[in-house]
Structure formats: structure tokens, C-alpha cells
Design a protein that fits this description.
5 helices; 3 strands; 39% helix; elongated
Length: 132
């Protein structure tokens, strides 16, 4: 088959840089064992990927969506949150939050803003040395 060029694919994907990203992603898919949609004709994976894009056997939008999905590190799943009613009791310097009787009571220490500022002001900077 004739050589595939960027000009053959540029009318399918307008941006050359996006074309390179999509073709590279598709070539990696092929090397990982994905089924190809055209005859290989003894071509390497990047050429097969470009030919698939030029022949429109794959949708560039589907490739783009798959590329974005493959680059995501955290995929959010929409699940309804189940919230238990929380009871809060404040006593002096600590707060006790109880959500269920079978769970342990969780205790948090409380510090006023004035106490925090006094603690920060009381900090002493470390002495400078020649080691740094």
C-alpha cells in the first residue's frame, strides 16, 4: 500500500500535534495486543495507526477520549454518599463526635486562636551554622 503521510490524516484531525498524540496512543495500543482494523501489509505500528486514522476505521474522538482516560491517575465514580447523623458535644477544651453507638468515641483537642498565636510567637528560630 502507498505510504501514509500527515496530509492524509490532517483532514481527520485538524491539529498536527494532536494527530501525533492520537497516533502514538493507538500504536501503543496495537503493541499491547489491540486488534487492528486494517490490513497490516508488513507496516510498523505507528504506520498502521496513521493508516487507521486516515481511512477513518477509528474515530479520532474515540481515540482522544481513550487517551485522556489512559492518562488519568484518579477516576471518580459517582456513587451516592451515605451519611450517618452526627452528634457533636463540646466540653471545655475537647470535642467528642459520636456517629454510631457501635463505633468508638473520637476525641479532638481544641486550641483557641490566641493560644495558637502565643505558641507561634514563642517559637525560637534555629541558630545558623556553616553546615547549610
Amino acid at each position: 500500500m502507498a505510504r501514509v503521510t500527515v496530509e492524509d490524516c490532517i483532514d481527520k484531525v485538524d491539529n498536527r500535534f494532536e494527530l501525533v498524540l492520537l497516533a502514538g496512543h493507538r500504536a501503543r495500543q496495537i503493541s499491547q495486543g489491540a486488534a487492528i482494523t486494517i490490513d497490516r501489509d508488513n507496516d510498523k505500528n505507528p504506520v498502521v495507526a496513521l493508516r487507521e486514522i486516515a481511512d477513518e476505521t477509528l474515530s479520532p474522538e474515540d481515540l482522544k477520549e481513550d487517551l485522556i482516560h489512559s492518562l488519568q491517575k484518579h477516576v471518580e465514580v459517582d456513587e451516592p454518599e451515605v451519611e450517618a447523623p452526627a452528634l457533636s458535644t463540646e466540653t471545655g477544651d475537647e470535642t467528642i463526635i459520636a456517629t454510631d453507638e457501635s463505633e468508638e468515641n473520637v476525641t479532638f483537642d481544641r486550641m483557641s486562636e490566641d493560644d495558637l498565636l502565643a505558641g507561634i510567637e514563642g517559637l525560637v528560630a534555629p541558630e545558623k551554622s556553616d553546615d547549610f
